[in-house]
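Handout, tutorial session.
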Amino acid sequence: MNPKEIKNMIDFISKSGLAEVNIETEEFKISVKRNAEGNVIAAPALAAAPALAPVAAPAAPTAAPAAAEQANNYVEVKSPMIGTFYRSTSPDEPELVAIGDAVSVGQKVCIVEAMKLFNEIESEVSGTIVKILVDNATPVEYDQPLFLVDPS
């Protein structure tokens, strides 16, 4: 199963509303579980927020637009799967990209290891690497931003 098939399956499961899906073939076994507790925990916080909204509201809008304006110009390169992020193809090889490097569409920018498979992640945009958002050899989630690219 390739990364796009895994991504499509995760998208389908998230839209279906299923809480748990197990798929097993001769080649692989995948178990996907939705964390329903996250929604339950968030509901009381939202219910309590209106009482604090007049106090908290002025602080949040002033910080959010500044970050949003800076990020609006950049395109995120996201992880297509859950796994471990690596900046190079092996420990003794140089990093695939660094801040300030020019990248083109289809260029390898990192590796994500998932289930003992090393998946080459390619840039979907041409531009310059502005920021690397993940430390080497750390876990990443599906659709987590890995790099910020300035397309200009």
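The second record follows below. Compare its token runs with those of the first.
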Amino acid sequence: MSARDLYHDAVINALTKDGWKITDDPLALSYGGKDLYVDLGAERSPIAAERNGQKIAVEIKSFLSPSVIRDLEEAVGKYDVYRSVLLEIEPNRMLYLAVPRRVYESLLIEPFGQLIINRVQLRLIIFDEQQERIVKWMP
């Protein structure tokens, strides 16, 4: 298991404020004798009795290294690996990459970032690390 991300607690607080219950910290995945750990697992309680509760997995990335592109490469690589395993063992759980608003506004809304989001089909949670709140869900 790797060290917790700098914004780990901020994302937990933001998800909780948004109505999510953290069920796994971290969410352990196992496939083919290999163990992986996504930062968080969460579920939303059903709003109506006939609706099933939603389940998500959240990988958190702070983007604090000198190279934001290198951070993106690492995040996308992890995202692809986790998504592949989740599709096999828990296909109803949606995977999201949680990124700070400053990264979304400086990189991911630009043409390069949009290309990566669209080609990789990234699901994003954009969060404000100071206010510990969700700014935007994509898609």
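Points raised in discussion: The beta strands are 20-24, 27-31, 34-38, 40-44, 54-60, 93-100, 124-128, 133-138.
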